[in-house]
UniProtKB/TrEMBL annotation, chain A:
The gene is recR. One of its GO terms (biological process) is DNA recombination. InterPro entries: DNA_Rcmb_RecR, Hlx-hairpin-Hlx_DNA-bd_motif, Rcmb_RecR, Rcmb_RecR_Znf, TOPRIM_dom, TOPRIM_RecR. It comes from the Bacteria. A zinc finger (C4-type) spans 58-73. It comes from Heliorestis acidaminivorans. Keywords: DNA damage, DNA recombination, DNA repair, Metal-binding, Zinc, Zinc-finger. This is Recombination protein RecR. One of its GO terms (molecular function) is zinc ion binding.
């Protein structure tokens, strides 16, 4: 870093804080940005600041939103008897793309991970619990990731919610539909075999 | 199973090389420090279970470079395959098999299996339990991606649990959270245990038979799995057994801030004529045990796959007496196993076999076919 002008080193340092960006990539990105026009640079900087300033967490489902409550929580057409719990706002987008789920969401903003200091307190679990008294609610679908952390989170939620008399379900993990069995990787295929059901 | 050619770019001390291989025995000759082991390491990486010397990608990347690449072409069950490994500084390297990007690198074992013999194998007998666990994990993992998956998940769960023990010690987390992680760890631990025991039951008779013939019928080798906690005879109770062990050791674990029981603490115990090899085996016996285990690994892989793995012999020819050397090469040759051998001089090789071999000279990260 010694060799770069101070503002350039600063830019590289900030970029290298991004996930998946190491020092080498950060340098490449920095010099790419410097070659761009000033107006491109301003547009990027403004987009970042705007995204920050103009979004907040929905006070009900904790999804990122421009206005509170968010469009899912406002929409009375949606099935109020279902809440699908996900780790991340991106998961909401993924599930919405199916266009076949019409219930509500809840975003935890992470999964249990002692290594990163994330316990139940650090996730939006209290906020979830406060929604469970709704008289319409019948089922909580846990759609956390199929990782060790995601499974631990799912187990934690089940333990908390089941005693309240609500149905708690876990999404199935298996083969992508329409994909050929032949192209599925071996572990995915194995999990699908384990999750087989009777016909 | 056969590797037809390999190309290395910025791998260890190789700037760039591409070489075609012989379908039988390939010998790399060169003095020390020229890149022979590096080459075997690259071949071993093709089976998707990491460097045999446990090196990280950053260690294998040539100094001052920002990516390394290993490409290989070969045949498995007479079907061609292409492998492309690309490391360019991220956490994980990009792995392609036949043009398809693999989510899990260990799925490469679908195309390539490798068994490597090296002077460090002696540590299998005298070294710490982690050496023997690594042997087991590599061996079982190559025959079962499911095993690799469970192992990775188990290791992750243990890492999380250890972090939690630290936080509990510092009063930053609760016992209820520990219950939760115990529930996550336990089924993975039991599945690993079952798979390891099943595999040992398969490999032990091979190792026994091989050792017995190496010792000319005079000695018996036994393998037993030593679990870090008491197990009942009936497997159906193992989950309870493990949970009980976790409960019993809990206060100690919180003080020491590590998980003290589970497959990551187990051992594969080796006995010669009922005496523990770790304590009693002579240098010669240790060599024979290590050799038997590796040969048994070849048989084990063949048992599951019905195809022999690729065999890598790093500097071990001089460790064997001439008779065993010739016997080993003849056996491998007869079974049509592709073999890669490193050596500092050719004296070690039976002249009769020289025409079945391809010879390469290795010098300062360069490699070329040679005839003497
Ligand atoms: N990441 C690396 N980049 C460049 N050279 C390396 C790297 N790692 C090891 N080497 C070099 O490789 C050589 C050792 O090669 P090796 O294959 O172990 O030798 P041998 O032929 O004795 O088996 C040493 O000269 C070492 O400096
Ligand atoms: Mg060497
Ligand atoms: Zn909302």
């Amino acid at each position: 870093m010694l060799y770069y002008a101070e503002p350039v080193s600063k830019l590289i340092e900030e970029l290298s804080k991004l996930p998946g960006v190491g020092p080498k990539t950060a340098q490449r990105l920095a010099f790419f940005l410097l070659r761009q026009s000033r107006s491109d640079a301003v547009a990027l900087a403004r987009a970042i600041v705007d995204a920050h300033d103009k979004t907040k967490y929905c006070s009900s489902c904790m999804n990122l939103t421009e206005r509170d409550p968010c469009r899912f929580c406002c929409d009375e057409q949606r099935d109020q008897s279902l809440i699908c719990v996900v780790e991340d706002p991106r998961d909401v987008v993924a599930i919405e793309k199916t266009r076949d789920y019409h219930g509500l969401y809840h975003v935890l903003h992470g999964s249990l991970s002692p290594m990163e200091g994330i316990g139940p307190e650090q996730l939006k679990i209290k906020e979830l619990m406060s929604r469970l008294s709704s008289p319409h609610l019948r089922e909580v679908i846990v759609a956390s990731n199929p990782t060790v952390e995601g499974e631990a989170t799912a187990a934690y939620l089940a333990r908390l919610i089941k005693p309240m008399g609500l149905k708690v379900t876990r999404i199935a993990h298996g083969l992508p539909v329409g994909g050929d069995l032949e192209y599925a990787d071996q572990v995915t295929l194995l999990r699908a075999l384990e999750g087989r059901r009777e016909l | 199973m056969e590797i037809k050619s390999i190309e290395l770019v910025h791998f260890r001390n190789y700037e760039q090389v591409k070489v075609p291989f012989h379908r039988g025995i390939n010998i790399f000759v060169g003095s020390n420090g020229q890149g022979k082991t590096n080459l075997l390491e690259a071949i071993a990486l093709l089976s998707g279970n990491g460097s045999h010397r446990d090196a990280k990608d950053t260690d294998m990347l040539s100094w001052q470079k920002d990516f390394y690449r290993i490409k290989a072409e070969g045949l498995t069950f007479n079907h061609p395959f292409q492998i492309d490994l690309l490391y360019s500084g991220e956490k994980r390297k990009k792995v392609q098999l036949n043009g398809r990007t693999l989510k899990r690198i260990y799925d490469l074992s679908e195309a390539v299996n490798t068994v490597i013999f090296s002077p460090e194998d002696l540590a299998l007998v005298k070294g710490s339990p982690s050496e023997r666990r690594r042997f087991l994990d590599r061996e079982i993992g190559q025959t079962s991606p499911a095993y690799c998956d469970v192992l990775q998940r188990y290791q992750k769960a243990i890492t999380q649990r250890n972090a939690l023990l630290r936080r509990i010690r510092q009063k930053e987390a609760t016992m209820a959270e520990l219950d939760l992680w115990d529930e996550q760890v336990a089924p993975l631990a039991v599945e690993l245990l079952q798979r390891r025991l099943d595999s040992i039951a398969k490999i032990a008779p091979y190792a026994r038979q091989i050792y017995n013939s190496l010792s000319e019928g005079k000695e018996e080798l036994d393998l037993t799995y030593r679990s870090s906690f008491p197990l009942q005879y009936d497997r159906n109770y193992w989950l309870d057994d493990y949970k009980k062990a976790l409960r019993d050791r809990r206060s100690e674990e919180i003080i020491r801030q590590v998980t003290l029981v589970g497959p990551h603490r187990d051992d594969l115990q080796l006995y010669i004529n009922k005496r523990e090899a770790k304590l009693y085996a002579s240098q010669g016996q240790q060599r024979s045990i290590a050799l038997s285990l590796k040969l048994a690994e070849i048989a084990f892989i063949y048992y599951f796959r019905k195809e022999y793995p690729i065999v890598l012999l790093d500097d071990v020819m001089s460790e064997l007496d001439p008779q065993r050397r010739e016997q080993l090469l003849k056996d491998l040759h007869r079974r049509q196993v592709q073999v890669f051998i490193t050596t500092t001089h050719l004296r070690a090789f039976p002249a009769t076999m020289m025409k079945e071999m391809a010879l390469f000279r290795v010098q300062e990260g360069r490699l070329w076919p040679t005839s003497e």
